[in-house]
Amino acid sequence: MNLQNKSVVLNVVLAIVAVVLGVRLASGKAPAEKSADAEQSSNAEQAVLDNIATRTSIRDYEARPVEKEKIEKMLRAAMAAPTAMNKQPWHFVVVDQLAVLDALSEANPYAKMLKKAPLAIVVCGDTEKMIEGGGRDFWIQDASAATENLLLAAHALGLGAVWTGAYPAEDRCKAISKALSLSDNLIPLNMVVIGYPAEHPQPKDKFKEENISYNVGNE
Q: Would the pTM of this model clear 0.85, i.e. be above it?
């Protein structure tokens, strides 16, 4: 191969390299990096869906406290919930004193597991933060969304939890308010009982095709 042909070949090779580098720079990442990112995204997506699907109510707990860091993470998750007009009409009462937990167990006949639990978080609606007029009762949806976030966060953190209802049962609301000395502006929606699980029940598959319709509600 003469010098001129060698020069042509070299120019072609350099041109190909430039094109490949240009494509990589334009895309921002090499194919291997893109593949790794896609796999990471897929794994994160599956982890979220698995956390939702495997969460179940836990009513028996180990005799050890829940760390403060985990309590804060659960509360942060709860307060990340959607809320109408961003009113955030909620208040969370964290209970970790045994005497108060015992009092709450008496306030709700369906919360006897509190006697063995190290922690409860009472989710309340705050009347001073609610929408005025016809949108007032949206606080129930907002606080319920916050409660579900809290439950999912607890499960993700290796904890077990169960939602025990209060509102709209007046007797339970009054008893819980008394046990916690709640101010008049706070309405207890529920008590979430939390601890490290001492039981491991299988989650129920609640997906049912008959509960779904498209575009109309009477299929």
A: no
